[in-house]
Amino acid sequence: MAHSTRNLFCCVAIATSLCATQPASALDPRYPDWPCQQLKVPEISIASVWTGPPIDAIDKEKAADPKETELVARLAARRTPIEEARKLIADFVVGTNEEKKVKATTLFAGLYSTLNAQRDQVMSGIERFSRKQKAAAEDIRDKTEKMRELQDKPNADPAQSDELASQLLWQTRIFEDRRKSTSYVCDVPVIIEKRLFDLGSAIQNSLNAGSSAK
């Protein structure tokens, strides 16, 4: 019985700590499932990552150049080092001033569409993760309360309490491991936005560099 009581006290402490680690309310009430310290911005602002020619006039119905589509995918992939990306961009944005302008604009438009969509998928995943964590915390609190009720019974079964305590400790370990990963997953949208900014800067530099070919 003493062992079960210790388990109960341990689980009560766990549930209390879970209450403390769960924010009372979201930083922005519009997004109650957003767990990150960074405010949620649903879409990357073009003005924050691009100062080149406007991309809203690009014909989105026109079939994309297969080579450009392949380049966009390669540049968007974070496994492609940024120095390699800059070289690929410089090799692509060539020609007369007008040709360079068209290539630069369509290339950035493709990157913006691709990386903005990736970022949206990541943020949706973060919110799903947050909802699962909330549900897990609530389940742990419910089971802790059930343990209290078991202990209060006159003929409490220590084995039953111990089994429930073991479940709680295991669930809490998983919960804590996932909670510690929150800061990492919250950084991913920022990393994607920074990559788009770096790629946009590289495109603009290539657009402005050197004299146009004749």
Please give a structural write-up.
The protein has one domain. The chain is 71% helix and 0% strand. The chain is an all-alpha fold and 214 residues long. The radius of gyration is 26 Å and the shape is elongated. The chain has seven helices and no strands. It comes from Bradyrhizobium erythrophlei. This is Secreted protein. Keywords: Signal.
Tell me the layout of helices and strands.
Layout: H1 2-21, H2 46-49, H3 66-76, H4 82-92, H5 97-152, H6 158-180, H7 182-208
Helix pairs in contact: 1-5, 1-6, 3-5, 4-7, 5-6, 5-7
Number of extended strands:
0
Overall average pLDDT: 84
Count of domain modules? 1
Largest sheet properties: none
Helix content: over 70%
Mass-distribution shape: elongated
**Run of helices and strands:** HHHHHHH
Tally the helices. Answer: 7
User: Which consecutive residue ranges, at least 5 long each, have pLDDT under 50?
Assistant: 1-5, 19-24
Separation of termini?
Answer: 90 Å
Query: Into which percentage range does the β-strand content fall?
Result: under 5%
Rounded Rg = 26 Å
Helix/sheet category: mainly alpha
Features:
single chain; mainly alpha; Secreted protein; signal
